[in-house]
Amino acid sequence: MYAEEVAEMAGRIRDEDIALVRERTSIAEVISDTVTLKSAGGGNLKGLCPFHDEKSPSFNVSPARNVWYCFGCGAGGDAIKFLMDAEHLSFVESVERLAARAGIQLRYVEDDRSTPRARPQQGQRQRLVAAHAAAVEFYRAQLTTAGARPAREFLAQRGFDRAAADRYGCGFAPDAWDLLTKHLRQQGFTHDELVTGGLSRPSRSGTLIDRFRRRLMWPIRDLTGDVIGFGARKLFADDDGPKYLNTPETPIYKKSHVLYGIDQAKREIAKQGKVVVVEGYTDVMACHLADVPTAVATCGTAFGSDHIGVLRRLLLDTDAVAGEIIFTFDGDAAGQKAALRAFEDDQRFVGRTFIAVSPDNMDPCELRLAKGDLAVRDLVARREPLVDFALRHMINRYDLDTVDGRVEAMRRAAPLVAKIKDREKRPEYVRKLAGDLGMEIEPVQRAVLAAGNGQPAGDAPASRRPAPATPAVDSPQSMVEREALKLALQEPVLAGPMFDAVEATEYRHPVHVAVRAAIAAAGGASAATGGAVWIEQVRDACEDLAASALVGELAVEPLRIDGEPDPRYVSITMARLQWGSVTARIKDLKSKVQRINPVSNKDEYFALFGELLSLEQHARALREQAAGGL
Ligand SMILES: [Zn+2]
Ligand 1 centre and the CA of 272: distance in Å? Predict the structure, then answer.
């Protein structure tokens, strides 16, 4: 199919131009627009395959050979083929897209078997994208007209100045029937193109009219930054349409995939390993301007599995590396329902899902207006795991002052706990639930076991499979342990002394403990000079296969920092590593101090109290170190 299409279509673009496009195209860059790639060793890259659902990356790219191949589903090809498959473009459209990207002017061969065309045959996608680009300019120019005053006021009242409006390409659809349609027709776009692209629609009398009128317009872009549709906000009281109108489904606009702001947010999403999902265009703008650059929003539809797919590939969300997805809700019932539904839907995704409910039922845009940028950053920072959120809302519906209320709340909440996929976490949630209900642990545990179809938590079906080499990184602690080990393996000269100075007891995950022990057994990171020899020494020192496999993985996994690591980054990482145990020890000591009678056990009380003070001092120092001071 591909070869045939090449043969048929290649006649239209000159062969040497196609060759030039292939030569000048960085396949890694093209694929990185939609798939986050990491090193696979030997100069190759890998990521999650966009063509089949997978949990660990089998999608490989060889920049040296200019090809990609998926070991999972067998798809593969060059950069042109990638665009054809990933974006559903034709061969010509893909070549045109890559040529534009590389700044190559394509020349088309005269097709002497048919009548000459007024302009070279372009692919449909490129035509529709060009029409949208022209529409953006048209709407933007309209925003400065007298009639657009309500649109400018709308933006100003929400704290968006001219620069912000420009950055997001905001515009105004004028109070006219066919101003845009005529404008685009004059630029050579056909009747069919404007209807297919969703920019115009036929009126009852059959003439073509603008789809959007008297509205504030937001261009909606795809991952690569092409405008593929619009979101339009009602401005006038006598406009009887819905508050928001969006582009209908078109060949280039699929609302189940579209995320507003993704073009501006994608690099930060990949870099930070997290994404903030908000509810509207103004919320995305407010978050970005408040320095939460990872915010995106769905456009006129609920967040769904296709959106998860888009984000997972950016987050490189595998079993080994967990991306964080943070939903903000203004605390209303709809938002809560959506969160609980997410809990039902996708268990794998649940462990990495967080909820941030804004105070006083304000959305991020309102919050920024009322309380400033810092309040928006705080909102995201104060996120809570979806499981905690769901449990709290479940039991809040019952009157916990009565026995009946407590028992009913327990019955309803137990299935949620039984559903938690990470079995190690279940006992913790059983304890928490018991505490929240004010009940003993045993009945709650029995209810959870019963809800899980009688399967005791210890009897894990998972234990029939061999333990994965890579622990699931679903806690900040695991993540930072992993990062510390990566530093010791990849940058021993830089990180060695600080790494070795931190006690092995700071590591929690058993496989991480094993790797930490192997590094010590291999002579410690301070003494190492790095390179393949060092990695082999550590691998040889590993007591078990899982640890040895993890060493191989950590030796090549990119650090979670842009650019080269420096002493500051090492210092921050090691401080975060120790944070968990220091705070746990403080909590422990505090409860001990509280149980001691300071009068009868004066000496013990002061000893513990002194210990507590010095630990808190240590914690403060660590907090400063983690914040970036050396
Ligand atoms: Zn695949």
Answer: 25
Distance 269 CA to ligand 1 centre (A): 23
What distance in Å separates the CA atoms of residue 615 and residue 621, rounded to the nearest whole number? 10
Chain mean position to CA 611: 41
Q: What is the mean pLDDT of residues 501-518?
A: 91
Ligand 1: centre distance to CA 79 (Å): 15
pLDDT, one tens digit per residue, over 63-119 is 877 778 887 787 778 899 899 888 777 788 888 889 988 888 888 765 444 443 434
Residue 297 burial (CB count, 10 A): 26
Mean pLDDT over 550-566 rounds to: 83
If you measure from the C-alpha of residue 44 to the centroid of ligand 1, how many angstroms do you get, rounded to a whole number? 16
User: How close is the Cα of 25 to the center of ligand 1, in Å?
Assistant: 22
pLDDT in tens, 467-507: 344 444 557 788 899 999 999 999 999 999 899 989 898 99
Residue 52 C-alpha to ligand 1 middle, in angstroms?
A: 5
602 C-alpha vs ligand 1 centroid, how far in Å?
67
Q: What is the Cα–Cα distance from 358 to 363, expressed in whole angstroms?
A: 7
Q: How many CB atoms lie within 10 A of CB 231?
A: 22
CA of 222 to the centre of ligand 1 (A): 22
Whether pTM > 0.70 for this model: the answer is no
Tens digit of each residue's pLDDT (9 = 90 or more) over 604-615:
777 777 777 777
Q: Cα of 57 to ligand 1 centre, how many Å?
A: 9
Residue type, 529: T
pLDDT in tens, 56-65: 888 888 887 7
> Measured at the alpha carbon of residue 510, what is the angle toward residues 506 and 511, in degrees to the nearest 5?
105
- CA 496 remoteness from chain centre: 32
Which tens digit of pLDDT belongs to each residue from 120-178?
Answer: 445 788 889 999 999 999 999 999 999 999 999 999 999 999 999 999 999 999 999 99
- 300: tokens are 């006129």
Ligand 1 center from residue 51 Cα (angstroms): 5
SS3 label, residue 110: coil
Question: Rounded distance, CA 79 to CA 98, Å?
Answer: 8
Distance CA 412, CA 415 (A): 7
CA 310 / ligand 1 centre spacing (Å): 15
Measured between alpha carbons, how far is 97 from 33 in angstroms, rounded to an integer?
A: 13
Q: Which two tokens stand for residue 343?
A: 């809990």
CA 400 vs. chain centroid, Å, equals: 37
Instruction: Give the pLDDT of residue 11.
Output: 45
- The CA distance from 363 to 283, in Å, is 7
